[in-house]
C-alpha cells in the first residue's frame, strides 16, 4: 500500500477517525469529573553503605556487598511489617488529637474520614493518656484477632491507614551514591509529609535493631564459649599446680636436666676417687708390711687411733660440705675453712705423736723409721680422705638415683597436663579474639547504621497535576491511532479488485475502463459518470479502428457472475455510440431487467439457452446487426448460465465486466480460460463500481 493509498483509506473513514477519539475523550471526561487531588512529597536519606566511615577506615567499595546492603535496606522499607507499624503510628497520632485539629498532621477532611472509619466508642477505647499508651492500645487491638475494626482497616483499601496505601511509599537508590529517596503521594498534604517522616523513623529503628541484634547474638555466643574455655584453662592450670606441688617440682625440665648432669658428674668423681682410694690403700698396705714390731704397736696406740678416727670424721664432714657446696653451684660453705683447719690440726697432731715415738722404732730393711711413719701418715690421710669422699659420693649418688627414678615417670603426666593447658589456652585466645572482633563489628554497626536525613520531607502546597488531562489526551490519541490502525490494517488485508491496477494484477488482463455504479444510460453532464463512460467509449472506438471495413464491429460483453454490470455497460455504450452517430445494435439475453428509461430503440433480446443449443449466426438473432456499424452482444453469466459459444468467434473484442468490491477467485480464472478457448478476440476488463478516486488511475 502506497502512501497515497493509505491517506485515501484514512480519508474514506474520516468520520470514524474523528468520532471515536471524540467519543473516548467525552467518556473519560465524564468518568473522571470527580478525580481526587493528589499531593506528593519526598525525602533523601544518607546511608553511608558504600563510602561511609567505619572503625577500620572508609568502607570498601565491594559492588556485590554494597548492592546486597541496599537491597536489604530497600526491602526492609517496603516490607509489610514496616508498613503496618507506620499505619499504627499514624493512626495513634491521629487518635491522640481527639476531636481537635492539628494542621501539621491532617486536614478536616481527613479527620472526618477517620471519624467515619472508627466509631466514637472505639476511638475512646483506643485513645490513651499519652501517645505511647495510645500506640500500645492500637497495636494490641489490631493484633487481638483478625475480625476487629482495626485489623480490617489495616488490610482494607483505605487511602490513608491501610497497608496497601502505604505500599505507595517508593524507595530507590539515587544512581550509585549512598543516598536513597523516599517518595509518597496522598490526598492530604499533611498526611503525605508525616507518613514519610514515620516511615523514616520506623525503618531506621528496624534497620538498626536488625544489624545490632544480629551481632549481639554472635557476641553472646562468643562470650559463653570464651567463659567455658577460660574455665577449662583454669582447671588445667590448677591440675598443673597441684601436680607440681604434690611432686615437689619447680621446673621439671631444669630439675631433670640437673639430676642427669649431677649423676654423670658424681659417676666421674666416684671413679676418680675410687682409683685414688685404691692407690692410697695399696700404698698404705705396703707401708704396713714394712713396719713391724714396736712400730706397729705405736700405730695401734690408743692416742693415734683416736686421732685417726677424728681425722676420718673430719674428712667425711669436709666431703659432705664440698659436695653440697658444688650442688649450690660453687658457693663455698663457711664451715669448710674451719673443717680444713681442723683436718690440718689433726694431721699435725698425728705427726707429733708419730715424731714422739720416732727414736724407738726401725725397719727391717734398715730404712729410718721416721720416713716410713711419714709415708704411712700421708697414705693414711689420702686413704682416709678418699674413703670419706667416696662414702659421701656413694650416698649422694644413691639419693640422686632415687630422685631420678621418681622424676622419670612424672614427665609423661606433666606433658599431658601441659598439652591440655596449651590446647585450652589456644582455644581461649581464639575465642577471645573472635569476641573482640564481634564487639568491634557491633560498634561498627552502630556507627554505620546511623541513617541521616539529608533532605527532610516537605509539605506540598499544591496538588500534582491530575491524570485527567493525560487520560483525555491518551484516550483521544489512542482512539485515533486505534481506528487508523484498523483502517490501514484492513486496507493491507483487502483482497478486492478495487481499482484498475489491482484488477490487472489479479486477473492478468488489461483494464479498458472503469464505470461507477449505478450508471445511468445517459449520465449527467460534467460528472464522473460521464467522464468514465466517455473514456470507455473512446477506448472502444479506438479498438473499432482495427475492424474490417464494411463489417460490423462486434463487442461481446461478459462477466463470470450475474449482477456485474454487463447490462448497464451495454446500455451506456449503446446510448453513447448512438449519440456519436454510429449505427449500434445491442443484443441482450432474454429476461434481462432493464431500467425503464434505459430501453433504447436498437435493443434486441435473444434466447441465450436456445442459442447455446441451436448455435445460430449473429444475423439470425438480429437482422439489423448485418447493417450495423457496432454490435454489442451481452452474454449471460459465464459461471451461472449457458451462453452461445458460436457467436464468440464473430466477436472482435470481449469486455469482461468485474465488480470492484469482489475478489478474483480460481473459478473466475476457469471461466476466463473457457472464454478464451471460445474466441481469439482480446479480452479486456471493465471494472464497475469503482470510486472516483480509484478511477483516476486511468481517467484524467
Task: Kindly describe this structure.
This protein is α/β, with parallel strands linked by helices. The protein has 24 helices and 13 strands. The chain has helices at residues 3-12, 14-31, 63-78, 80-96, 108-117, 120-126, 131-144, 149-154, 163-166, 189-246, 252-290, 294-299, 302-327, 335-356, 369-407, 410-448, 468-493, 500-507, 528-544, 566-579, 608-614, 618-621, 666-678, 692-695; strands spanning 39-46, 53-54, 57-58, 170-173, 179-186, 452-455, 511-515, 553-558, 584-589, 603-606, 630-634, 653-659, 683-688. It has a seven-stranded parallel sheet with strand order 7-13-12-8-11-9-10, with helices on both faces. Strands 4-5-1-6 form a four-stranded antiparallel sheet. A two-stranded antiparallel ribbon has the order 2-3. Strand 2 (53-54) and strand 3 form a beta hairpin. Helix 11 (252-290) runs antiparallel to helix 15 and helix 19 packs across helix 20 (566-579). The longest helix has 58 residues, at 189-246. It starts with a helix and ends in a 5-residue tail after the last helix. Residues 363-368 have low confidence and may be disordered.
Write out key terms for the chains shown.
700 residues; alpha/beta; seven-stranded parallel beta sheet; four-stranded antiparallel beta sheet; 13 strands; transmembrane; P-loop_NTPase; plasmid; transmembrane helix
> What's the overall geometry?
elongated
Unreliable spans: 363-368
Q: Level of helix content?
A: 55-70%
Over the alpha carbons, how many angstroms does the gyration radius reach? Answer: 68 Å
Roughly how many Å apart are the termini?
A: 22 Å
Q: List how many beta strands DSSP finds.
A: 13
Specify the structural class.
Answer: alpha/beta
Mean pLDDT: 84
Strand content: 5-15%
The neighbouring-strand order within the major sheet is 7-13-12-8-11-9-10
Q: Major β-sheet, in short?
A: 7 strands, parallel
Given the structure, what is the number of helices?
24
Amino acid at each position: 500500500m502506497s502512501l497515497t493509498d493509505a491517506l485515501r483509506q484514512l480519508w474514506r473513514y474520516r468520520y470514524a477517525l474523528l468520532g471515536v477519539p471524540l467519543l473516548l475523550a467525552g467518556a473519560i471526561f465524564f468518568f473522571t469529573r470527580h478525580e481526587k487531588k493528589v499531593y506528593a512529597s519526598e525525602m533523601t536519606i544518607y546511608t553511608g553503605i558504600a563510602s561511609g566511615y567505619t572503625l577500620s577506615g572508609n568502607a570498601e567499595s565491594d559492588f556485590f556487598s554494597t548492592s546486597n546492603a541496599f537491597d536489604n535496606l530497600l526491602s526492609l522499607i517496603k516490607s509489610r511489617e514496616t508498613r503496618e507499624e507506620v499505619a499504627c503510628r499514624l493512626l495513634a497520632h491521629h487518635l491522640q488529637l481527639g476531636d481537635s485539629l492539628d494542621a501539621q498532621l491532617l486536614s478536616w477532611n481527613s479527620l472526618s474520614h477517620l471519624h467515619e472509619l472508627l466509631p466514637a466508642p472505639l476511638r475512646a477505647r483506643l485513645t490513651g493518656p499519652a501517645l505511647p499508651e495510645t500506640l500500645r492500645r492500637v497495636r494490641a487491638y489490631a493484633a487481638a484477632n483478625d475480625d476487629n475494626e482495626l485489623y480490617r482497616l489495616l488490610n482494607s483499601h483505605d487511602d490513608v491507614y491501610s497497608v496497601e496505601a502505604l505500599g505507595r511509599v517508593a524507595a530507590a537508590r539515587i544512581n550509585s551514591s549512598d543516598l536513597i529517596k523516599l517518595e509518597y503521594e496522598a490526598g492530604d498534604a499533611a498526611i503525605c509529609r508525616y507518613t514519610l517522616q514515620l516511615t523514616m523513623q520506623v525503618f531506621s529503628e528496624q534497620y538498626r535493631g536488625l544489624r545490632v541484634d544480629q551481632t549481639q547474638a554472635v557476641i553472646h555466643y562468643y562470650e559463653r564459649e570464651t567463659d567455658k574455655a577460660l574455665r577449662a584453662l583454669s582447671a588445667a592450670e590448677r591440675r598443673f599446680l597441684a601436680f607440681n606441688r604434690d611432686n615437689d617440682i619447680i621446673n621439671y625440665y631444669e630439675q631433670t636436666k640437673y639430676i642427669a648432669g649431677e649423676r654423670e658428674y658424681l659417676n666421674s668423681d666416684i671413679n676418680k676417687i675410687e682409683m685414688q682410694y685404691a692407690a692410697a690403700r695399696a700404698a698404705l698396705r705396703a707401708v704396713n708390711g714394712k713396719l713391724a714390731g714396736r712400730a706397729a704397736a705405736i700405730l695401734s696406740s690408743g692416742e693415734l687411733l683416736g686421732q685417726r678416727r677424728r681425722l676420718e670424721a673430719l674428712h667425711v664432714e669436709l666431703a659432705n660440705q664440698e659436695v653440697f657446696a658444688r650442688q649450690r653451684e660453687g658457693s663455698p660453705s663457711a664451715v669448710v675453712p674451719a673443717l680444713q683447719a681442723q683436718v690440718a690440726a689433726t694431721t699435725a697432731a698425728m705427726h707429733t705423736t708419730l715424731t714422739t715415738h720416732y727414736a724407738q722404732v726401725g725397719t727391717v730393711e734398715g730404712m729410718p723409721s721416721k720416713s716410713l711413719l711419714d709415708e704411712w701418715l700421708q697414705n693414711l690421710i689420702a686413704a682416709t680422705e678418699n674413703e670419706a669422699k667416696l662414702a659421701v659420693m656413694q650416698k649422694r649418688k644413691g639419693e640422686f638415683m632415687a630422685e631420678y627414678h621418681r622424676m622419670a615417670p612424672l614427665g609423661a603426666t606433666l606433658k599431658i597436663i601441659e598439652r591440655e593447658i596449651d590446647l585450652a589456652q589456644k582455644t581461649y585466645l581464639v575465642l577471645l579474639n573472635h569476641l573482640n572482633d564481634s564487639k568491634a563489628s557491633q560498634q561498627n554497626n552502630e556507627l554505620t547504621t546511623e541513617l541521616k536525613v539529608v533532605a527532610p520531607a516537605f509539605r506540598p502546597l499544591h496538588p500534582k497535576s491530575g491524570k485527567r488531562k493525560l487520560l483525555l489526551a491518551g484516550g483521544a490519541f489512542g482512539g485515533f491511532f486505534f481506528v487508523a490502525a484498523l483502517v490501514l490494517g484492513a486496507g493491507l488485508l483487502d483482497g478486492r479488485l478495487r481499482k484498475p491496477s489491482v484488477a490487472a494484477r489479479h486477473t492478468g488482463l488489461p483494464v479498458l475502463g472503469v464505470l461507477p455504479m449505478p450508471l445511468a444510460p445517459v449520465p449527467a453532464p460534467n460528472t464522473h459518470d460521464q467522464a468514465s463512460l466517455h473514456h470507455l467509449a473512446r477506448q472502444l472506438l479506438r479498438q473499432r479502428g482495427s475492424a474490417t471495413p464494411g463489417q460490423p464491429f462486434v463487442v461481446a460483453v461478459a462477466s463470470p457472475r450475474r449482477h456485474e454490470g454487463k447490462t448497464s455497460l451495454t446500455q451506456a455504450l449503446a446510448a453513447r455510440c448512438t449519440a456519436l452517430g454510429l449505427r449500434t445494435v445491442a443484443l441482450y439475453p432474454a429476461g434481462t431487467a432493464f431500467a425503464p428509461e434505459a430501453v433504447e430503440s436498437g435493443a434486441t433480446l435473444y434466447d441465450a439457452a436456445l442459442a447455446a443449443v441451436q448455435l445460430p449466426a449473429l444475423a439470425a438473432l438480429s437482422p439489423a446487426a448485418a447493417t450495423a456499424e457496432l454490435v454489442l452482444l451481452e452474454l449471460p453469466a459465464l459461471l451461472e448460465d449457458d451462453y452461445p459459444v458460436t457467436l464468440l468467434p464473430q466477436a472482435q473484442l470481449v469486455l469482461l465486466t468485474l465488480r470492484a468490491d469482489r475478489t478474483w477467485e480460481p473459478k473466475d480464472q476457469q471461466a476466463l480460460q473457457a472464454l478464451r478457448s471460445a474466441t481469439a478476440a482480446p479480452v479486456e476488463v471493465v471494472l464497475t463500481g469503482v470510486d472516483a478516486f480509484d478511477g483516476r488511475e486511468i481517467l484524467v
